Amino acid sequence: MSTTTLNQSRLTRLSARFAPVFATIAAGAAARDADRSLPYQEIRELAASGFGALRVPESHGGAGATLSELFSLLTDLAAADPNLTQALRAHFAFVEDRLVAAEGPERERWLERFAAGELVGNSWTEIGTVALGEVNTKVNPDSQGGFTVTGTKYYSTGSIFADWIDTYAERSDSGKRVIAVVNAHQPGVQLGDDWDGFGQRTTGTGTSTFTAAVVEETNIIDFDTRFRYQTAFYQVVLLVVLAGSAQGGAQDFAAELAARKRTFSHGAAAVASEDPQLLQVIGEVSAAAFVAKSTVIAAAQGLEAAYQSALGLRRGEIDLEADIAANDAAELASAQGQVALTPLVTTALSRAFDALAASATITSKNLDRHWRNARTAGNHNPWVFKARLVGEHAVHGRELPRVWAIGASGGK
Questions:
Q1: Beta bridge partners of 213
Q2: Acyl-CoA dehydrogenase C-terminal domain location, by residue (predicted)?
Q3: The domain spanning residue 169 has which CATH number?
Q4: Fewest CB atoms within 10 Å of the CB: 71, 110, 138, 141?
Q5: pTM exceeds cut of 0.85
Q6: How many CB atoms are located within 10 Å of the residue 101 CB?
Q7: pLDDT over 90 for what percent of the chain?
Q8: DSSP single-letter state for residue 225
Q9: Strand ranges inside 51-172, DSSP E
């Protein structure tokens, strides 16, 4: 039996395992979005079911999923509710980082935590008009020989649901950039849900404030050791949000057309669900969803190559040049996917309304959430910059940056 067959068999089993959980999540998605009700229970049910440990090896209590399998399942979750996929973005990125980390007791401890259902959130973006590349959040030595974290972060997606917070900071004693993994369950951590975007309303995104929050020295990780394909990984999760929004939207709009009782005198059929023009619109949305998920899987295969490269480098089986090449390829694939899918999905979901009539805009239906979620995800890491960088690669052979920052030019 081939490895591909084995992987497909595992994906089939995992899909069946999580399908009931996804169905429950989908049933409440529209109401949660309308009420801005955070999915605490849904996130915990996913964690309890082992979803957060998908990538953890079976030998350590996880499912041992490949990246293609992970991203396929994440797309199915996003079709149910893309906000949950977005909320778990930082968790799966941190799991990935620990998978490629040097073997030892600290790595083992994290794998045990993941298998036990513990989740990791995100706090990377500095708040306010900080200069490009500046980090105001500090890790400080304390008088007892330990360390604390002080600072404020925004776009802390998923942290409000998490047990740990992956925090980008700077050591005040050495100036070294680090990842401080802070236990979220302590008085020095305050988590807000003050994101007010028109989409991705229930991702648990907002402000994280650290006031002398304790962090163990073993949980202060040198940023330079971070897994090299991290930016591509984060971006492919955003592609998942686009693909899932397209898939969920295609399903909902198709169901609306199938149930439609009224039609127009100048329509092309006596029944709306048989009108060839309206069926064409639904077909186009369905095709966009197919292309979007196919793009996600293709990009995930690039990530898988980078992951295998990282393991090969750690074992001394390949050289640094080969590893960098694999990571550059993963970054390029994620950027190409972003450039292609952002306009494809947002346009398809906007056009989906052409298959229905004015009643499709009724607030209680909340069909617009599919477009709002996709449009909001598409505004992360603006695709227009990526399009230029992909063009530079095509014309001049320049590799895309794998680490970049956001901030004010000159600090203004």
A1: 149
A2: 243-381
A3: 2.40.110.10
A4: 141
A5: yes
A6: 18
A7: 91
A8: G
A9: 120-123, 125-126, 138-141, 147-154, 164-171
